[in-house]
Write a structure and sequence with these properties.
By secondary structure, the protein is mostly helical. It has seven helices and five strands, in the order βαααααββαββα. Bound molecules: zinc ion (ZN).
Length: 190
C-alpha cells in the first residue's frame, strides 16, 4: 500500500474520521471497539489496501490504532505549527521514503510488514502536513456544537467548517437553537 502526497485532503478526512470514533466524542461509546469495527472503518474510509491490512490486524494492532487516534487528537487540540509539523512527521515514519508512481504522482510506499496502524499513521501524517502546508494551522479545530467533544481538520476551500460531523452536530445545533427560539417566543408571548 502507498499514500499519495497530493491526496492530503482525503488523508486529513480520514484523520478526522479516526479521531471522531473515540468514546469521548460519543459520550462513552467507542466507535472503533473491536477488530470487525476496524475492518469496517478501513473499508469505508480507505483504499483497498487499507481494508486488506485491517483484515490481517490483531488485538495489538487495534491498540496501536487507538493510541494513534489519541496522538492525532492531541495534535488537533494543540495546533501550533512547529508541534504539528514535528508530530505529523513522526507519524510518517512507517513509510519507506518518497517516490513517483506510474501516474507521476508523489507517493510514499509503506515498508513491507507494515500494519494497518502503520498505514493509518502515514495517512494521518500526510493529511496533517498537507493541511499545515497548504491551508495553515488555523484549520485544526474543536467541534462547534456545544454538547460535542469532537474535533476536525477543515479542508474546505473557505475554511469555515464548524462541526466535526456536519450532518450530525450541525443538525443537533440547529434543532437546539430552534427550540431555544421557540421557548423564548413562548415566554415573550406568555
Ligand atoms: Zn461534533
Amino acid at each position: 500500500m502507498q499514500v499519495a502526497l497530493d491526496d492530503y485532503v482525503e488523508s486529513a478526512g480520514i484523520a478526522t474520521e479516526l479521531v471522531n470514533t473515540a468514546a469521548e466524542v460519543w459520550h462513552g461509546d467507542d466507535h472503533l471497539p473491536d477488530l470487525p469495527a476496524l475492518v469496517a472503518f478501513a473499508d469505508l474510509h480507505g483504499t483497498g489496501g487499507l481494508g486488506d491490512l485491517a483484515r490481517r490486524a490483531r488485538q495489538a494492532d487495534l491498540r496501536a490504532v487507538h493510541a494513534l487516534r489519541g496522538t492525532v487528537r492531541d495534535l488537533i487540540d494543540h495546533p501550533e505549527r512547529d508541534r504539528l509539523v514535528t508530530g505529523a512527521t513522526a507519524l510518517t515514519s512507517p513509510a519507506g521514503g518518497v517516490t513517483l508512481d506510474d501516474r507521476a504522482r508523489w507517493v510514499i510506499p509503506l515498508r513491507s510488514g507494515a500494519t494497518v496502524s502503520d498505514a493509518l499513521s502515514v495517512l494521518c501524517g500526510v493529511g496533517v502536513l498537507g493541511v499545515v502546508h497548504a491551508l495553515g494551522e488555523g484549520r485544526f479545530r474543536a467541534c462547534g456544537a456545544p454538547t460535542c467533544g469532537g474535533a476536525f481538520i477543515d479542508t474546505t476551500r473557505p475554511g469555515r467548517r464548524r462541526y466535526c460531523m456536519p450532518g450530525l452536530c450541525g443538525n443537533r445545533t440547529n434543532v437546539a437553537n430552534h427550540r431555544a427560539r421557540q421557548a423564548a417566543a413562548r415566554e415573550a408571548a406568555g
